[in-house]
Amino acid sequence: MLNRRHIRVKVMQTMYAFKGGESDDFSKDQKFLLFSIDNMYNLYLLLLSLLLEVQKRAENDLEKKQKKHLATKEDKDPNRKFVNNQLLELLAADFQLKNQLEIHNITNWQLDGEYVDVIFKAITSSDLYKEYMTTKVSDFKEDKDFIVDVFKDIIAPNDKLYDYLEDKNLTWLDDLPTVNTTILKLLRKAKSTSGGGYFTPKLYKDTDDKQYAIDLFRKTLLNRTALNKEIEQKTQNWDSDRIANVDYVLLQLAICELKNFPSIPVKVTINEYLEIAKEYSTPKSSIFINGILDKLVKEYEEAGTLKKVGRGLL
Hints:
The chain is mainly α. The chain has helices at 4-17, 27-66, 73-76, 86-93, 95-103, 108-111, 113-124, 127-132, 140-155, 159-168, 172-189, 207-222, 224-234, 245-260, 266-280, 285-303. The protein is built from 16 helices and no strands.
């Protein structure tokens, strides 16, 4: 679920907030880094559980209509196509997902049910829903396509839900694109035969990724004086006040990665930090960072100090 760029962003954010020096104990900051990454999984579970809560809300809505004093024929014999959606049923039956929801104590919608109502009303008032409900029966593909469209077009872009997530955890806003993409990918690839555990992917692709996050954070902090010296040598014509703080942190991380991670290609490192700069810093930051890194790489190559393993890594 987690990609290397997102790990780099998390490390950047932790580095940006770090106020100590190389000799200080930064175990708490490392713990915060890992917590921030782990908390991304809570967001994933929260959004998946929202789909389940909307299904429950739909079921309750039908039951209330059936119990009305003057219930109509439609109230008494409602179209249960949405309530019985096969993909939602697959989600509800995933015992490992249920277990993870309990372990991570995902109970937000029990306390903040008004947001379930907001999403439910947005779905049922949509043309997408009206078209889906024109029939009473469907196959798995139609049910899946409907839920994918609901998540993509109604849930993911909902402003009230966005504000709610921002209020609950500010770091979730940076996690949201990756989490939404992961959920959509899983929903699209789901099959009627998908067993328990399908909806509980690993946060890290492998243990190397988690270690990469720790190593990038620690090695950058432990070598910050030397890294700053290299940056200062290449920015002598720049007023230090004109260099954005985020750019400085990105340069520290990029130079550390170039020098201390032999298995990561030079082009990958440069491209990744340029993309992060475009998203998190000033409009001209990527040009500035690219210029500095390009000069340093050439110097490392000439001096023979750029140690990369494997083919095509320079």
